[in-house]
Amino acid sequence: MTIQTKAALLRAYGEPLRIEAITLDEPGPGEVVVRLGATGVCHSDFHMLDGGFKTPLPTVLGHEGAGVVEAVGPEVRGVAVGDHVVLSWIPSCGRCRYCVEGRPALCVDRQGVERRGGPVRMHDAGGKDIHQFLDTSAFAERVLVRAEGVIPIAADVPLETAALVGCAVLTGIGAVARTARVEAGSGVAVIGCGGVGLNVIQGARLVGAAHIIAVDRRPAALALAREFGATETLDSSDPAAGDVARAIRKLSGGGVDYAFEVVGRPETIATAWESLAPGGTAVVVGLTKQNGQVTLRSDFLSEKKLLGCIFGSSVPRVDVPRVLELYRLGRLKLDELATRRYRLDEVNAALAVLDGGEAGRGVIVFE
Q1: Looking only at Cα atoms, what is the longest distance across the chain?
Q2: For the whole model, what pTM was predicted?
Q3: Which of 2, 88, 216, 314 shows a CA-CA span of 20 to 30 A to 143?
């Protein structure tokens, strides 16, 4: 028996997504079916459209979702039908070296079901296999995922708010609190103030950073950055700003202690590096091109550090409840992140708006 649903398929690079009826297999051992309430629209999805980043095709994109568990397979523990959940696009096995060390974002068993030897679990109307994107494929009304990839949440949290916790929020706040371990009183620069960058900003505010310099070329994004906790803003498109790294160093009195690059471009990574004070740390949060190269000025005698980051080094089963508790207490802005709402059949328009650079986060809301 199969499960019917609608999804947005990427069949060929350079083409729009197509809304099609697809089927999901019945959940097997350790698997659950989630009926989605909302899915965030992230740059990681957009980057797949033109083939600049490769993923097996055809596929259903989307990875930032929340919904209600509709069915569970055998051997599932800790989640039941009716539970409200956030999807985690890196479900951790709990057994490998990295999971045992408390670093589940680096889990060696984090690939989708078809990539660990099992059959592909989604199929189109003609029976052709559809690949799962980032263990989720959340541009769909329903998803079949590993039980390790769902985090139960309270039923009174709006699903369109909870969805954003599954990527943008955990990545941004985790980059501050877990990857970099920013100390209170530090100076911070955030280059790129999209959905993830805004959460880097409020993560820095939460841990008590003294100065938080937000850098972007979009006035609306900089206005949102102020709302989320930036103490200074810098319009990188303004000719008066000149060299951005030099401007950051001037604003911070000699350089920041931590610089977060949330764009994924070689030139902005170099800017983050150049904006540091001696002993400072640059964290690359943005998605960089596969096999891309970055050129940095040699400055290692100043003990600067360059760190990579995936999913904010998060521990989802710990961090999702913590983030939502901060939201409940009014200390974390989540509702304000979702600035545009779409239906599933408007997904291409949502991706086009994202490419156009509008501020905030778009969310697909399901009936």
Answers
A1: 65
A2: 0.93
A3: 314
* Distinct helix (H) and strand (E) counts, the chain: 10, 18
CA 330 to chain CA centroid, nearest Å: 22
Q: Is the dihedral of CA 197, 332, 166, 322 positive or negative?
A: positive
Q: What is the pLDDT of residue 247?
A: 95
**Residue 222 falls within a domain, yes or no?**
yes
Question: What span, in angstroms and rounded, lies between the C-alpha atoms of 228 and 267?
Answer: 25
Structure tokens at 36: 């989605």
Residues 126-183 pLDDT 10s = 999 999 998 899 999 999 999 999 999 999 999 999 999 999 999 999 999 999 999 9
- Quote the number of domains for the chain: 2
Cis peptide before 58 (omega within 30 of 0): yes
Residue with tokens 């051992």: 29
Domain match, 152 and 177 both: no
Catalytically active residues are 42, 44, 47, 63, 167
